[in-house]
Design a protein that fits this description.
alpha/beta, N-utilizing Substance Protein B Homolog, Chain A, 8-stranded mixed β-sheet, 4-stranded antiparallel β-sheet
Length: 486
């Protein structure tokens, strides 16, 4: 069960029957009447219905929005502006749940957790249109009321109409001082509501940036921005020039990256043929940093210890192939994720294996990539529902796995070889605490300055670790430690 930023549970199930059940009738706006005093039947708005269906799937089936949305768009044959609207409504609403539920509570005689989930999701979509989009207020209210009539019921549409009309009386900037705690008395609580993040995540991100509340606010705001689509041209198989010819724009940091401002990445030939892919720029750079560390002696055996779903493995495989004598072994615990790695790579050997109980002899690899399983707090921009699913109670078990995997990675590399420890999370418990614990009890490994292989990137922190940030670099928040085996 997801929970919003104020600690409320986001309810699942229940409601007025299945989503698509009680049809009801309704006018083009809130309250129009047809023959016999009955509201005319609402016209089905496919973009808003797709957004609504995604919201319900996230709530009822724990669906992943970034995986389901492309399928919904294809199924409904939505493209162009309609596809953009459906995506913005769904993703934006999922990001803003914590704030929107507080506003709904202020405009309703029922707490959000007491509202039937199908109705609540529709109202949330309407609140997002009112407070965060350019949709005219009358259209935001009218289309949402129509949606409720069509998908929930006529009686429920009266509640939606009343709440949304109250919401429309103020802007988001005017609502925040009303619904959020006083920043002077409860700065963390204020940020949690104002930027729609669970309180524990606000605490964790504040600690990760050194306790600065202004920078924390900037980071939280960046989490709520729609991220640009970043492509990677796998070297030797595609080129940035090819991506630029297909409509992309030059990237800021990675020599293999390009930004796609609009359009479907899958429509680009290089992406369709797996010669290029969608990959965050920080993800590209941490892989590149591992390959740039100078080594003495052999440099032919590379290992990706937790390779699924294959983004970093795809780039490492291309870099190893271009190098000539190097080859990549990609290991993944879960079979279906290992298949994704196999589909992504060309020359790599892909196996299903537990990285904590390795199927290889120790000390045989020259370079090891460990992209450790983590809370994923660094990718909240791309996974809009993730902030409501993550639970701080998972940190101890994740920390145990992360330490075991890092020990295994160090054991796998030869003396003089290098390990990259990477997390898509800035949480201190998953980053400096893990590396510090392992370094503290092993005398056969040392930390290198992870910023040295990345001179093109500024603002990576004080070292020896490198940290990428949405508000500084426009990337996911990612942590990199480079360790050399003595």
């Amino acid at each position: 069960m997801m929970s919003s930023g104020n600690g409320r549970n986001v309810p699942r199930g229940g409601g007025h029957g299945p989503a698509g059940g009680s049809r009801g009738a309704g006018g083009k706006g809130a309250g129009g009447r047809g023959r016999g005093g009955r509201p005319p039947k609402p016209v089905r708005d496919e973009a808003r219905n797709a957004a609504y269906d995604l919201m319900r799937a996230v709530d009822e089936r724990d669906a992943y929005a970034n995986l389901l949305m492309p399928a919904l768009l294809r199924e409904r044959r939505l493209s162009g502006r309609d596809a953009g609207l459906a995506t913005e409504l769904a993703y934006g609403t999922l990001r803003g749940l914590g704030t929107y539920d507080e506003v709904i509570a202020a405009c309703s005689d029922r707490a959000p957790e007491d509202v039937d989930p199908p109705l609540l999701d529709a109202v949330r979509l309407g609140v997002h249109q009112l407070l965060k989009t350019r949709v005219p207020p009358h259209a935001a209210v009218g289309t949402t009321v129509d949606l409720v009539r069509l998908r929930v019921g006529i009686g429920a549409s009266k509640y939606a109409n009343a709440v949304l009309r109250k919401v429309s009386t103020r802007s988001l900037e005017q609502w925040i001082p009303i619904v959020a705690p006083d920043p002077a008395e409860d700065p963390v609580g204020h940020l949690a509501v104002a930027h729609s993040h669970p309180r524990w995540i606000v605490d964790a991100l504040r600690d990760a940036v050194g306790g600065d509340f202004d920078e924390t606010a900037a980071l939280l705001a960046a989490d709520n921005e729609r991220p640009k689509v970043t492509l990677v041209a796998r070297p030797g198989r595609s080129s940035v020039a090819e991506l630029l010819e297909a409509g992309a724009e030059p990237a800021r940091y990675s020599p293999y990256a390009a930004y796609l401002a609009e359009g479907d990445p899958g429509a680009i030939l290089a992406v369709a043929e797996s010669r290029a892919a969608v990959q965050d720029e920080a993800s590209q750079l941490v892989a590149l940093a591992l390959t740039r560390v100078p080594l003495e002696g052999s440099d032919s055996r590379w290992l990706d210890l937790c390779a699924g779903p294959g983004g970093k493995a795809g780039l490492l495989d291309a870099l190893a192939t271009r190098k000539g004598e190097a080859r990549l072994l990609a290991a993944e615990l879960q079979y279906h994720r290992a298949r994704l790695v196999w589909q992504t790579t060309r020359q790599a050997a892909v196996i299903t294996a537990d990285g904590t109980a390795p199927a290889w002899r120790p000390g045989v690899f020259d370079r090891v990539m460990l992209d450790a399983p983590c809370t994923g707090l660094g990718a909240l921009r791309r996974r809009p529902e993730a902030r409501w699913r993550r639970d701080p109670r998972s940190l101890p078990e994740l920390g145990r796995i992360q330490r075991a995997l890092l020990d295994s990675a160090i054991d796998a590399v030869r003396p003089g070889g290098v390990v990259a420890y990477v997390t898509c999370s800035p949480h201190l418990a998953e980053t400096v605490a893990v590396v510090g614990d392992v370094l503290g009890r092993r005398d056969d490994v040392e930390a290198l300055d992870a910023r040295d292989p990345l001179p093109e990137v500024e603002g990576l922190g004080e070292g020896p670790y490198a940290r990428f940030w949405p508000h500084r670099h426009g990337t996911d928040a990612m942590f990199l430690a480079l360790l050399r085996r003595r």
